[in-house]
Write a structure and sequence with these properties.
Layout lengths: L1 E8 L3 H11 L6 E4 L28 H14 L4 E2 L3 E5 L4 E6 L2 E12 L3 E3 L15 E3 H11 L6 E5 L3 H12 L3 E6 L9 H8 L6 E2 L2 E8 L3 E9 L5 E10 L2 E4 L3 E3 L2 H5 L24 E3 L10 H21 L7 E2 L1 E3 L2 E5 L2 E2 L8 E7 L3 E10 L2 E11 L5 E5 L1 H6 L6 E7 L2
Parallel strand pairs: 1-2, 1-6, 2-3, 6-17, 8-15, 9-10, 9-15, 10-11, 19-26
Antiparallel strand pairs: 4-5, 5-6, 7-16, 12-13, 13-14, 18-21, 20-22, 22-25, 23-24, 23-26
């Protein structure tokens, strides 16, 4: 059995940044396990720009962004095992993985989960119709076009307005396809506003909000889709049904954190995000197992992934050096439309610096306040012009608040009407 200080599962931007964060804290015995044949994760197929504005203060493509972290990994001489699939993880931090050399067992002092996420498929939506050619997830179509050089179709309808779907609407347009429409069941887009402007508005691609697909028509290949408006309960209004002829349907209907390994290790998962429940150090309920990136919760920007992951690596290094004292953790409460927070547990005695708390809201809010309460006493209020489910928000929990109130028993994050 190979023994390492920190094993990192996943060699995408989260895993790379976590390894760098741990290395900077003086941990040398690190191992990255990646199931693909190269590092970089999903960024390898994200050839559009818009990455790195926060981290590097310049605009990069996905491969350019990941290349910078891969260079850091090479410079720091952090070992990597590619084409290596982790098949099990347990609470004792024992890992079983396989590759072309055979099966390997790894005993780690700490593990960082950075497996990313996968796309929700058509099967999750129960859309009637045949299983014909021409139906793909947006990410699969992106790989076909950007990596393999194949165009999936010529007349495209995109279901869902997630960021990958918006970006693929523009990409298919670049490749000569006609994008008939982007269909979104909610009354708002689930993607970033900048992507709506740059990918749809700039190319006059229609976005049909409060619409859904009721049937996919086709025998051998997709021939078209039936769409209808939906009411406030998202039920189809059948008399509004219209037909859009097309030969390809792309689904961009959400991402699911990839947590099968987490379940094997008996890690507690959030019912909202689908990712591990973590404290302010990104440690799960199993001491020594940390999580970061999209396996924890779905991010908008890779810059936020790497920022968060470096902290996870730093805290994993601290665990290896000093262990973790069992102290009281406060489960954060959410009110007024806040769906979840990450972290969702804070140990007051562990807080050594300000905490950048990430959260999302359940619907669109205009001119509302984001408030933080300690034991029902408001300690912070920030005016937000607009809050949307498609954009992750941040609120800072300051260390000085814990210095003033070390015995706090309840912390609440809420969105309230401006008074």
């Amino acid at each position: 059995m190979t023994e390492v200080d920190i094993a990192i599962i996943g060699g995408g931007p989260a895993g790379l940044a976590a390894a760098i964060g741990a290395k900077e804290q003086g941990i040398d015995n690190i191992l990255i396990l990646e199931r693909d044949s190269q590092l970089g994760g999903i960024l390898n197929q994200c050839i559009h720009n818009g990455f790195g504005l926060h981290t590097f203060k310049e605009e990069l493509t996905g491969p350019e962004y990941s290349a910078r972290y891969i260079e850091m990994i090479d410079d720091l001489k952090i070992p990597v095992k590619l084409s290596t699939m982790v098949v099990s993880v347990n609470e004792a931090k024992e890992i079983v993985a396989v590759n072309e050399e055979g099966m390997m067992e790894i005993q780690a002092k700490a593990i960082i989960l950075a497996m990313g996420c996968r796309e929700r498929s058509r099967g999750a939506l129960n859309i009637p119709g045949s299983r014909v050619a021409g139906i793909y997830t947006a990410g699969t179509a992106q790989k076909f076009v950007n990596i393999d050089g194949y165009i999936p179709g010529k007349e495209v309808v995109i279901v869902g307005s997630g960021d990958i779907g918006l970006i693929m609407a523009r990409r298919m347009r670049f490749e000569g396809a006609k994008v008939k429409a982007v269909i979104e069941i909610m009354p708002y887009s689930s993607g970033l506003n900048r992507n709506i402007v740059q990918c749809l508005d700039d190319y006059e691609i229609p976005l049909k909000l409060s619409h859904t697909i009721t049937q996919i028509k086709g025998k051998e290949r997709v021939e078209g889709v039936w769409i209808t408006k939906v009411d406030e309960n998202r039920a189809p209004i059948l008399e509004t049904e219209t037909f859009i002829p097309c030969d390809t349907v792309l689904f961009s209907v959400g991402l699911l954190p990839e947590n099968e390994l987490s379940k094997l290790a008996n890690i507690k998962l959030s019912t909202v995000t689908g990712g591990p429940v973590v404290n302010e150090g990104f440690q799960s309920n199993i001491p020594g197992i940390f999580a970061c990136g999209n396996v924890l919760h779905v991010h908008d920007l890779v810059d936020f992934v790497t920022e968060e992951s470096k902290l996870a690596g730093k805290n994993a290094a601290h665990f290896v050096k000093f262990g973790a004292a069992q102290t009281r953790g406060i489960a954060l409460k959410v009110e007024g439309g806040v769906r979840y927070t990450v972290p969702c547990i804070i140990c007051p005695t562990h807080v050594k610096e300000n905490i950048r708390l990430k959260f999302r809201v359940s619907r669109v809010y205009k001119d509302h306040d984001v408030c933080v309460y300690f034991d029902k006493k408001r300690v912070a209020k920030r005016r937000a012009r607009i809050l949307t489910p498609g954009e992750m928000e941040t609120v800072v929990i300051k260390k000085q608040w814990f210095d003033k109130d070390p015995d706090v028993k309840e912390i609440t994050i809420a969105v309230e009407s401006s008074s």
